[in-house]
Every structure is written in structure tokens, then in C-alpha cells.
Amino acid sequence: MCLGLPMTIVETDGITALCQHGDEQRHVSVMLLSGASVGTKVLVHIDTAVRLLDEDEARLISEALDGLEAGLNGQDCDRFFADLIGHEPQLPEHLR
User: Fold this and answer.
1) How many other CB atoms are found less than 10 A from the CB of residue 41?
2) What family does the Swiss-Prot or TrEMBL record give for this protein (predicted)?
3) How high is the mean pLDDT of the chain?
4) What is the C-alpha separation between 3 and 19, in angstroms, rounded?
């Protein structure tokens, strides 16, 4: 399974960008994106920014990844998924 990491562009030349997530920084390709400028949130897969993210979506992905890490470390992870508790997950319309 491949997970995308939400990162923030710190600097870019339009082809590559230095991106940051927490304490981690890495150089990624931004050639697939238009409008990728400093401060933009992007979803990174295997050192390639594959799409732009808004602040809310980047936050939700970060919280989900934090929840997975907490669960893997044997810690309580319910608070990371509070929006899912008490709701039956629904398939998107195109998958029903």
C-alpha cells in the first residue's frame, strides 16, 4: 500500500520543490502540478507531488496518519477519527 503525505512547499523552481511535513523535509517533483507555489499544500507520493490540497484536507490526512501511527504504537487513536465514530461508512456513489 502506498500512502500520500501532505506536505507544504517551502521553496520551488517550478520543476522541483523542497517540501516539509513536521520535521521532515524532502525534494519532490512538482511537474504534474500547475499553481504549486511556496506555502501550497500538496499530496506527495514517492517524491512526486500529485495534487494540490486545501488546508482542511491536508489537516484531515495528517490527523489520519497520526491516528494510524498511534494505533500501531498501541496508543488510543479514537480522537484522531472522531468524525467517523458513530457513523456507518458509506461507499461513494460510483462504487455502489
Assistant:
1) 23
2) Belongs to the HupF/HypC family.
3) 90
4) 16
